[in-house]
Amino acid sequence: MKNTNLNVLITGGAGYIGSHVSELLINKNWKVFIYDNLVTGYEKLINKKAKFIKGDIKDFKKLSQTIKDYNIISVIHLAAYLNISEAEKKKRKYFVNNVGGTLNLLKACKNSFVKNLVFSSSCSVYGNAEGSVNEKQKLKPKSYYAFTKFKSENLIKKYSKINKYNYAILRYFNVAGASMSGKIGEIETSHGHLVKNLSIQATKKKPLINIYGNNYKTKDGTCIRDYIHVSDLADIHMKVLKKISEEKNPIILNCGYGKGYSVLDIIKIFKKIVKNVEIIYLNRRPGDVAKIYSNTYKLKKYLNWKPKFNNIKYILISAINWEKKLLKIKKKKIKY
Ligand SMILES: NC(=O)c1ccc[n+]([C@@H]2O[C@H](COP(=O)([O-])OP(=O)(O)OC[C@H]3O[C@@H](n4cnc5c(N)ncnc54)[C@H](O)[C@@H]3O)[C@@H](O)[C@H]2O)c1
Q1: What is the CATH number of the domain that holds 235?
Q2: Is residue 64 one of the residues assigned to a domain?
């Protein structure tokens, strides 16, 4: 009989983080099934050894059929919309996809073999925070995107009692960088991520950097964030999944390195790698909080975990290298 314990469904597996989680799990011999509607995901990012099912998490019939057909034991739920500014304007779109989609997934897991669920939440559920935040901090989502993550977390907790699965809620801080394999990285440009924007500019003759707001109550007026390399984050997913399936206790973990960098800090490092950078100051973006970085005590203790890629210059370089490769692919100088 086949060992189905390693069968894992990754919703949003054709996206940036999902492709890194898939790559790692496949390298460690897990059987990966990717469920994605490709709204911001890319076929190029889908690992050839994964089984791809093109579908929407809002499609209950297709999702429950997929979970049954492939004897799914674990789910890593990453599918969501994540543009913070857009969410402020299109609340219904974000509620239906992020909260409605999560509810649909949980219902689809009912009467299935699913025993473990890992959910990609966000540090934005804490809202405005001064200094480092730990997992016990009261949740005060400020943006609408954060509200959809907050609501989804609550659904996951509630349904764990009904469906009897083990769960992990991972609250990611700012994810950046690209895999050492050189095969995957961030493609989607609509999310407004600083490191992605910098990488795109790094491929231009006259790099132009937009800074959204320089009047926040921070040391230099720009927003402070905690940047985690996507490969370290993928490693956390694998280890957390193993641990919840063994220990059968739920866990909520912050995923960051515990160090805050302002936008200007990052640009200063960027300028050491890329020359002739011009900066433009623009208005604040709706939904952005001033300052947030992670307390990593629980993450390190729970997993006995050490990061491998927590050098901000390395994070930037890996993202820039990926961007240069993307450009060559676009110009058809190399094959994907
Ligand atoms: N990137 C970050 O810094 C960050 C930080 C905190 C949390 N997150 C969360 O991590 C997850 C992955 O984000 P990412 O950065 O990889 O973004 P991404 O856009 O690359 O990945 C999201 C994936 O979900 C898919 N998707 C969206 N709606 C879907 C639907 N209804 N049905 C099926 N597939 C759908 C998209 O096609 C895409 O492949 C998201 O839930 C996001 O909220 C990301």
Answers
A1: 3.40.50.720
A2: yes
Q: Which atom of ligand 1 is nearest to the CA of 172?
A: 6
What's the Cα-to-Cα distance from 79 to each of 2, 16, 71, 112, 322, rounded to whole Å?
28, 11, 20, 20, 23
Judge whether 26 lies within some domain.
Answer: yes
pLDDT at 288: 86
Instruction: Judge whether 145 counts as a catalytic residue.
Output: yes
At 121-154, the pLDDT tens digits run: 999 999 988 779 999 999 999 999 999 999 999 9
Tally of domains in the chain: 1
Instruction: Decide if 264 is inside a domain.
Output: no
* Rounded distance from Cα 2 to ligand 1 centre (Å): 31
Asked whether residue 231 is assigned to any structural domain, the reply reads: yes
CA dihedral angle for residue 124, residue 117, residue 96, residue 284, rounded to 10 degrees:
20
As a whole number of angstroms, the distance between CA 202 and CA 205 comes to 8
d(CA 42, CA 48): 13
Residue 272 CA, ligand 1 centroid: distance in Å: 31
User: Could you list the residue range(s) of the whole structural domain that residue 108 is in?
Assistant: 7-176+226-255
pTM for this predicted structure: 0.97
Ligand 1 pocket residues where CB is under 6 Å: 11-12, 14-18, 36-41, 56-58, 78-82, 97, 101, 120, 122, 172, 174-175, 188
Q: Which atom of ligand 1 is nearest to the CA of 121?
A: 7
